[in-house]
Automatic annotation (TrEMBL):
Molecular function GO labels: hydrolase activity
Signal peptide: none
Pfam families in the record: 4HBT_2
EC number(s) reported in the record: 3.1.2.-
Keyword Transcription regulation belongs to the record: no
CDD domains recorded: 4HBT
Disordered: region residues: 273-294
EC class name: hydrolase
Protein's UniProt keywords contain Hydrolase: yes
Alphabetic keyword roster: Hydrolase
Record-given protein name: Acyl-CoA thioesterase
């Protein structure tokens, strides 16, 4: 069984291309996930800890088609694909049902979550009651790719630094930066990287759209007056796409990795609404940023 959530859209969800921004999609997923957690807790005599006490361990988001502003809510189906002792994995599909009976799918994603005791700042195991509540929504993945390996440390050769200032509104009820904000932080750092590279080469960056984003959450990011350090670098340049890896660093000594990301970007033609080859010279400009080890 899948949980269906109808997510209202907002004008502010759109980016410069008139598409829903890649960060906003993750906000949609969070809304659907919270709605499902509330459903799991309905009719239970005890407080449902899953509604209020889980943290995101990993997001894998695949963007399939551009989504523009619609007056009616967008559909989001979510379900559970795997339940482990101290974590569970949810899957999502963001879609619109067409008048002809077909379905346009804009995004598919998975999220690994773990129950968390915020008072003690530690993860915990799932209870039998929580596993039973999720059981009706368990739908094993059609293809088993195995659990994705965590992203490794970023090679900072050619990386660009971005000072990350956490805003008061970025922090959730548990005084942690909300998982959606990490996507925004990596986006800001990515824009800084592309601007820096093209400025040095005397060229303009081609329009791009995000095709895939993987984020590993390693440690909580907290509100503080001093900035965190975000490092980004190009790790692959193809004929119509590029990959950028990122790492947020903090901790007591300023060297602890807090989160890592890998983002696949596709060069985009706004007129044809299709992928395209980058302008002449841009690929050559980006390629030197890729270290031989990559």
């Amino acid at each position: 069984m899948r949980h269906l959530y109808r997510c209202p859209m907002r004008w502010a969800d759109l980016d410069l291309l008139g598409h829903v921004n890649n960060v906003t999609y993750v906000d949609y997923l969070q809304e659907a996930r919270v709605d499902m957690m509330r459903t799991l807790g309905q009719g239970r005599a005890t407080h449902d800890d899953l509604e209020d006490g889980v943290v995101v361990v990993r997001h894998e988001v695949t963007y399939l088609a551009p989504l523009g502003l619609r007056l009616e809510p967008i559909g989001i189906e979510c379900w559970v694909t795997e339940v482990r002792a101290a974590s569970f994995t949810m899957a999502y599909e963001v879609f619109h049902d067409e008048d002809d009976g077909g379905r346009t799918t804009y995004l598919r994603a998975t999220t690994v979550l773990t129950p968390y005791v915020f008072a003690q700042e530690r993860p915990r195991r799932l209870t039998d009651a929580e596993k039973a509540a999720m059981a009706p929504y368990v739908e094993p993945a059609a293809t088993s790719r195995g659990r994705a390996a965590r992203l490794g440390p970023l090679d900072r050769a050619g990386a660009v630094h971005y000072p990350l200032h956490v805003r008061f509104s970025d922090v959730d009820l548990y005084r942690h930066v909300n998982n959606v904000k990490y996507f925004e932080y990596f986006q800001e750092a990515r824009v800084r990287l592309m601007g820096d590279l093209t400025r040095r080469g005397g060229r303009r960056m081609s329009p791009v759209v995000v095709a895939q984003t993987d984020v590993d959450y390693l440690r909580p990011i907290l509100l503080r007056p001093t900035p965190y350090d975000v490092w980004s670098r190009v790790t692959r340049v193809g004929s119509r796409s590029m990959t950028i890896d990122g790492e947020i660093v903090g901790g007591a000594d300023g060297t602890e990795a807090l989160a890592r990301s890998r983002v696949a970007l596709v060069f985009w033609d706004p007129e044809t609404q299709r992928s395209t080859e980058p302008p002449e010279g841009l690929r050559e400009l980006l390629s030197p940023a890729v270290s031989p080890a990559s």
